[in-house]
Amino acid sequence: TVVDGLQPIAAIFRKHIEKDGFALVSEQRSKIHEEEEAAAASGKAATTSSKDKSADKDVASMDVDGGEKGAAVASDRSEFIMKLLTLHEQYNDLVVKCFADSATFQKAMKEAFEAFLNLQIGKTSSAELFANYCDSLLNTGGVGAKMAEEEVEEQLEKIVRLFSFLTEKDVFQEFARKQLAKRLLLERSHSDDAERSLIAKLKLRCGSHYTSKLEGMITDMTLSRDIQAGFCKWMADKAAGREPVVAKPTEPPGVKPAVDKSKASEEAKTKDEKPASSAPMDTSGGMGSSDLGSTSNTVTIEGVDVSMRVLTTGHWPTYKEDKLNLPRELEKAITVFKEYYETRTSQRVLRWVHSLGKCTMDATAFVGNAKVPRVELQLSTHQACIMLLFNDVDELSFGKIRESLGADDLDLIKQFVMSLCKKYPLLIRKSKGKDIRDDEIFALNTKYK
């Protein structure tokens, strides 16, 4: 009788898997090294400080052209994860079909994947790469938007199987939470069902405590729609001279911040630009459109169509409360919404996070294309406030812009101003220095087309 006869075979099996896995990691590291060398050779910094990275992430989703930076790099990282998924599927099938799903060989495969799956890939952890791939599957601009519903579901199932081998599950959770927040608030999720499916799979693997914040975010978006619908009815009742009836809140207790998302619809008052009415951003994808982040119920206040989202502080990533001088119309909208919200509850405090807001504007100042008299702009709240300063003038100094916005974070204002000068510039910077001085002039690019 052979005692523990499977153990030597399982050890060989494990080493074979590790060989293939380490080869994939080595290949990916070589690609990253080549990318860094190419960036250095072209005079671009291969790395940035953590502060620069944070600022770039905040502004990247707010570029006027709506494009995401580093698409080629993201695609390359997705390809690496897909190779890992294929490798796991290959050896899992082998264990099931050739080794009768033996626990000994399942353990060998698990230990093999854990050995190389948790290695650092360049400056990125495997947990972050996994979270990024999930985001790509669920984002309207990612690989999942081109897949059928069944294919996305299959990829999510595969990634969660590999996820069980990760040691840094808390790191994955934090990245996944930030990415879910961005998809929901920027309306970039192409499928409600896929979002809930991923959360359900993670909950099955790690328990309800692991996914409680993710589930809370989904719940918040549903409750926000109800709050916005109630706000619309409250405003309609006031306009009709009826006594507004307010439904009592059903939200879970907790201090709540409010996120403003403005869309404009007033008539042009000056030559340059004006807010204009716009339907919600199209978020349709291969699996149908998502309504988690939809804010189709808007309220017109001072000629501006606005919608608000109320989010539970404990569920969402931490957002800095930024000081910002809003246009009079948006200030009025906030005041009116506060009045409505206080009729629902007096035990919660609204904290406004303007960095999560966005604005759709029609501009008539740009004459670069005579066939297009109006240009529709998708801007962040900060960008919209900057552009509205050019309603009465064609040029402004940076010092004047900074003073008008009243923001405390100087670096953040510089980021937003410069984001309007890149790729498809709405503003033209007159000087070319590295740093921005208060006396530097920014001019409206009227030839924009």
Low-confidence stretches: 45-70, 251-290
Shape: globular
- Range of strand content: 5-15%
Q: How would you characterize the largest beta sheet?
A: 3 strands, antiparallel
Mean pLDDT: 80
The level of helicity is 40-55%
Write down how many β-strands occur, each being a DSSP E stretch of 2 or more residues: 9
The total of helices stands at: 13
- Report the span from N to C terminus: 82 Å
Give the SSE string: HHHHHHHHHEEEEHEEHEHHEE
Q: What spatial order of strands do you see in the largest sheet?
A: 1-4-3
Radius of gyration: 25 Å
Structure class = mainly alpha
Please describe what this structure looks like.
- This protein has 13 helices and 9 strands.
- The chain is mainly α.
- The chain starts with 5 loop residues before the first helix and ends in a 5-residue tail after the last strand.
- About 35% of the residues are buried.
